[in-house]
Amino acid sequence: MSHIPIEVQLSSLPTNPGVYQFYDVEDKILYVGKAKNLKKRVSSYFNKTHEQGKTRVLVKKIRSIKHIVVPTESDALLLENNLIKKYRPRYNVLLKDDKTFPWICIKNEKFPRIFPTRKFIKDGSEYFGPYTSMKTIHTLLDLIKSVYPLRTCNYDLAHDKVAAGKYKVCLEYHLGNCKGPCEGYQTEEEYNRQIQEIREIIKGNFKSSLHYFKSRMKLLAQEMKFEEAQLIKDKIEVLENYQVKTTIVNPKINNVDVFTIISDEAFAYVNFLQLSHGSIIRSHTLEIKKKLDETDEDLLQLAIIEIRQRFNSHSKEIYVPFEVTLESHLKVVVPKLGDKKKILELSERNAKFFRQDRFKQIKIIDPDRHTNRIMGQMKMDLRLSMEPRHIECFDNSNIQGSNPVAACVVFKDGKPSKKEYRHYNIKTVEGPDDFASMEEVVFRRYKRLLEEDQSLPQLIVIDGGKGQLSSALKSLDALGLRRKIAIIGIAKRLEEIYFPEDPIPLYLDKKSESLKIIQQLRNEAHRFGITFHRNKRSKAAINSELESIEGIGNKTVEELLKNYKSVKRIKEASLENLAQTIGMSKAKKIYETFH
């Protein structure tokens, strides 16, 4: 990565939330930061002058940028915290209090207490979070306490101690905040039912709670108690923006390696996420150049071994998108749903983003490699004998049978060559006959190229299905070009691609670059044809308005439009001025028609 210029690395960054890491020339980590928009934030280091000397020195040392894309801003905040703790980069302010984010704990005990904590103790208690804001926790706990009376004391409420009358109810009981399980006034079964409902609220299922708050807010507003209503409105906002789960930190997923693979014809990209103590501490994507037609299974298997050796990973559990064969002591899991599936999806997203970044960088640094890859891809996808470096696409345009025209657009090396686009007026066909029009245009185009000894395309794309393709083939037969140029038709509805003498269409993958280029060709031909057709139609409408005047012919109309540019100006012209252009007798006829 370090050999790619910083400007190129910046141009390929995504605009998603995530965490960025700066590395120096020796590939040592300098700085970790979070961003709502990675491209905007990271670019800001390089496109403005920094007041702080420390930041200026940091920017000078940066040689490469790595990033991890995450679903939300709060995920970015948590991940940034994990990575700073793990790597302690030189230019990050060291976290003096060793900052930890708060959790909500449901204590593992009889009549469980619920409270916020920053300590994660493995004693069987349930922990929800972590949360990036204490405000969210307090709002949630306030909501819970307003609906469910819970104990706050730390007594050991074992059955025998309660039965022996060891404890007495406190002030919380008399205030109605607790139902007094310490004196046996509330059963464990009823208390646990409450805890189950509270679990659902913490998980984000608080439809009924929101409904209760909203009706309460309206009631207070009606009673003119606006300050109290505003307090409840604030609570509603916190709950509505409440992020139920974070993918970045999950105490249930501990010391696991996650691997996913994205591949195309030439390369495979394997992303590795390392989770330690429930937190992501590393993300790395490996680019593998394919030598033969290796399967994703083979490549992933090899990549797992190589990456685990490189990063000296000893995790005994591995998450992968499909079954792979690894050492017997490793537990291989293929997640289907839930938190494990989410973490796998996050890894896959990072592999996809890495692939996109590489493509963008290659396009800037080595445009030929990018073009060669696409041309090779099209040759394979469309079963061609040679790369389609020169492609031509035809489209007919006629609206309700008027002014039939056609367009031919030309692409060289996968890009439009606009100076070679051509328009055609249909000459030999009466009325709206798309098939005959296509036959005429294809014949005229390639007859001319042959006569002028110009280079022929490697591929012709016909906008239309089997009928249009057959019409174009007749012209190629007539010119003796049938097997010399590859030709396909693309039907609009389902993007079906038809080949000569093959009744079964080809359906390319919707994400395929070959399909994208064919669609771009088709859309460009359509746009070019429609523009020409509209211009011709509007000219025809103008001409017909003038030609409908008795005694005024085509040549007179041309002469008038040459001088006055529009019918509006002709209408406004004086009789003397018109007479100077076309003579008095014709000028009178036009002047009297419009006045």
UniProtKB/TrEMBL annotation:
Boundaries of every UvrC family homology region profile domain copy: 262-476
A molecular function GO annotation: DNA binding
Keywords from the named record: Cytoplasm, DNA damage, DNA excision, DNA repair, Excision nuclease, SOS response
Location relative to the cell: Cytoplasm
Entry's Gene Ontology BP terms: nucleotide-excision repair; SOS response
Gene Ontology CC: cytoplasm; excinuclease repair complex
UniProt xrefs under InterPro entries: GIY-YIG_endonuc (IPR000305), GIY-YIG_endonuc_sf (IPR035901), GIY-YIG_UvrC_Cho (IPR047296), RuvA_2-like (IPR010994), UVR_dom_sf (IPR036876), UvrABC_protein_C (IPR050066), UvrC (IPR004791), UvrC_RNase_H_dom (IPR001162)
Location of the GIY-YIG domain: 15-93
PROSITE patterns linked: GIY_YIG, UVRC
Domain of life (superkingdom): Bacteria
Main subcellular localisation: cytoplasm
Similarity comment: family membership: Belongs to the UvrC family.
Oligomeric form and interacting partners: Interacts with UvrB in an incision complex.
Function recorded in the entry: The UvrABC repair system catalyzes the recognition and processing of DNA lesions. UvrC both incises the 5' and 3' sides of the lesion. The N-terminal half is responsible for the 3' incision and the C-terminal half is responsible for the 5' incision.
Designated name of the protein: UvrABC system protein C
Organism in which the protein naturally occurs: Arenibacter palladensis
Lineage, broadest ranks: Bacteria, Pseudomonadati, Bacteroidota, Flavobacteriia, Flavobacteriales
